[in-house]
Amino acid sequence: MTLTVEKLTHWYSDSSQKLYEDVNLTFDAGKFYAIVGESGSGKTTLLSFIAGLDEPREGRILVDGIDAKKIGLTRYRQRHVATIFQAYNLLNTMTAYQNIETALAITHSKHQKDSKYILAALSRVGINANQARQKVQKLSGGEQQRVAIVRALLVDAPVVVADEPTGNLDHENSQIIVELFKALAHEYHKTVIMITHDEKVAQQADVEMKLRANQFEVQTVN
Ligand SMILES: Nc1ncnc2c1ncn2[C@@H]1O[C@H](COP(=O)(O)OP(=O)(O)OP(=O)(O)O)[C@@H](O)[C@H]1O
């Protein structure tokens, strides 16, 4: 699914300057995009529009040419886009398995209650059946992030967005997460968009987008 940001203009009411003016971007399916840029350049704000969590002052988000607003933002958030955050956003008092089961139920996935499918997906990222049955608060940061990624994968949204998903992780765990994002794009043909401060992570993306306040410079890597 191609995601298009069309004529995006935005400003916060307490700021005298526009954060974006007439910005156009295209994100293709099967590609892994890294968004980098200095603090305050508007990375999280852009992602919140792409994820349907907030609306820009002007401009549209389109999926395969259809306005997200036309789909309905709630439906768009549930069916079209999966979000992954630095703080994992898992439900701490539930097990890894239950976190995924709940997400599948909310999104009416055809795989809900398919325990073999859920356990196989967790196993693929190194979470075994015992760990799957533990409350997520007992798992390490890297393991929790892997659970969050499996959840995003299984809800089967065509667009996956992530805000600093490796921010809390050491190099080894970051690399595992980066490999999973690459697989989401290249094997599962999803549109994958990740904010990162880590240049080593950004360099592994297919396309690196550098944000500067009030302008975009799109640099293609690989
Ligand atoms: N809800 C808000 N209300 C007012 N101003 C905001 C709001 N959210 C962000 N801003 C401002 O908009 C600008 C862009 O913020 P944003 O969080 O998108 O940047 P960022 O590039 O993600 O930064 P960081 O790398 O520090 O997370 C900043 O100047 C910020 O202070």
UniProtKB/TrEMBL annotation:
Highest taxon above the source species: Bacteria
CDD domains: ABC_MJ0796_LolCDE_FtsE (cd03255)
Stretches assigned to the ABC transporter domain: 3-221
Example GO molecular function: ATP hydrolysis activity
Pfam families: ABC_tran (PF00005)
UniProtKB keywords: ATP-binding, Nucleotide-binding, Transport
Annotated transmembrane regions: none
Protein name (database record): ABC transporter ATP-binding protein
